[in-house]
Amino acid sequence: MIRLLKYKFKNNLLSRTNILTTIIMIIVIISICGIIKSYQTSTLLYKVAVIDNDNTPTSSELIDDIIAYKQIDVTIEEDKEKSMIKLSRGNYDVVYEIKDGFEDKIKKGKFDNILVANKESTSLGVKWVNDKVSLIVLRRWMFSDIYKRIQKVSKDYDREKLEQRFLEDSDKTILDVIIHNVNDGKVVEIKNDDKKIYKIIWASVILFIIINIGKEIIDDRNNGVITRLEFAGINKIQYYSSYIIYIVIDIIVPFIITYFTLGYFTSINSFVIDIFITLMYICSTWIILIIITKLFKTKKGYILCLQLYFLISIILGTGILNQAFKLVDNISKFIPMYWYIHI
Questions:
Q1: Same domain, 224 and 267
Q2: pLDDT, tens digit (0-9, with 9 covering 90-100), for 24-37
Q3: Where are the beta strands (DSSP E) in 209-324?
Q4: pLDDT band at 88, cuts 50/70/90?
């Protein structure tokens, strides 16, 4: 088996063709995911109207902070009735009312009845906007509280200087809101779309790589290579094991490179879990491939079956039709790609 592994490493893993293919694959995956992430953060996503009933410096600062988000298109409205009509027609995703007494309550650390969100949609997008606005309000209260405490010690302290330092520190702080869905009393985290797309890409790449290796196995069997290896003391278990070791190394190395490059590393625990899930997906897909190679004696039949399996995996594994048909949702849970993408 060691001799077979050395052969696989020298002629397959470390070949110029494989190295070049791996480099191109890494560049393509990073480029696609990078473009998607850039598009998600730069594209205008939400149309928001704000009605300021307080008309104070603090309420004006809140509006300026909302406008600062490039994903939010803000329109200042004065007539609530007209704003509600526009909301019902889909011109706005949400209409915010800054209540009278907003500044006074913020300075006192009170958050009851200071801001009202009117919305027609229950989408996660509106929740995202609400979370961002809530975060801005919280930061404004924190600043007011800090400034009030400093004034007790030094009344001549420059407010603008403090505000600039506070905002700079706030931007440097990794502080964001994770949106959650409540399901049967349990809180379920909604995963990032770009991470899901990353996993869909890798699930497809892994499946494609393993399918191509399956073609080599069919050729080896038809050409009598497996039989000759058995005479040389290398049984079928060792033969298949050498392939899975080669596949794991060939996939995991570029996976780790893209994982770190795209900034998905947040902690050792999450990284280890993602690697483990990827390994489980590779192994389960490999087992299915071995079963298919046993069922089909010809390369043509194998390719036809694997093309069908690839198509089914993409349709059911990605969950494209799951929301439309309950039966499809149940069947998709038997597809390894489904578990890899949705875990």
A1: yes
A2: 999 999 999 888 77
A3: none
A4: confident
